[in-house]
Amino acid sequence: MLAHSIAEFDDVRMLTDMGHDVFSIGAYTNPRRPGDDKRPALPGVRHHPELEALVPDQMAAKEHLPAELIEWADVIICHHYLREWIFKQWGRIRHKRVIWRTCGQSDPPLEDLMAPLRRDGLTIVRYSPAEERFFKPTGHWAGADAVIRFGKYPEDWDGWMGTGTWVANITQNMADRGEWCGLGWYKEATHELRARPAGPGSERLPGGRGTLDYADMRRYLRQSRAYAYTGTMPASYTLGLIEALMTGVPVVSIGPAAWMGPDSLFEAHELCEFWADDPAKANARLRDLLGDYDYALSVSDRQRRRAVELFDVEPIKAQWAAVLA
User: Fold this and answer.
1) pLDDT one-digit tens code per residue, 245-256
2) Which CATH class is domain 5-151+312-324?
């Protein structure tokens, strides 16, 4: 159960490749005809029309899973809306293996709510070590059974060329969400540079490309000379950052003191070669990358190797296999 079609695509694909039979209530309820075009169909994933018929209202079904679906499943994995989708129906599902797969959306009250469920059998798989670093000292910490990062297929994200001398950013509607997505830092970091952000709402920013389909988005990343990463509160890091790093786009990240959230919860800057709280310093590094292709190429190579070490789906499959066993 997810509320993010890109993460859903990744997880359904990965778990199926591991040999599991997966049914997802979301964009990939019918994997041959996804309900969101941000990612392609998954024709190799088994379609369960009989289960699909049980969830015509997906939000209602997530809040109260049909009894037949609970009976069908061995494991229930949930990323989002734990209050509504897990806590409220815990008594109906606790006899199954239930996994909270964190995705950068937790908060102290949710940690407090989930702690007794973990003592009652809930498995918690964290997506970033920064979650423990931040939550545990506050006393609001439900615990962890494993830390497993998001998995990506490296062959999907490669081939960086950097022929487009612009600064990229794939925004989650930064124009509307403002400082939650680091808008002020971004504007200063790209001041007087050729910036071409993409994604929903980006057309309202200078040089914005608008929403790109999957093929155009991958081509855009391969062509971009540099990438200004702004963070998204409260996520320690995002899928967009992983995809940029694995493509090989040299990334300049916002620093932990400049994003909207707590310093210790932020991890994205630790994944990048260069970061800056001061947007003027970020601007200078972006300017260097735009002006020196050989330098950008060296950064690209180092960052991509690091990203593959952390996010390659093959070792992450093995980590999931250990948890599911």
Assistant:
1) 999 999 999 999
2) alpha beta
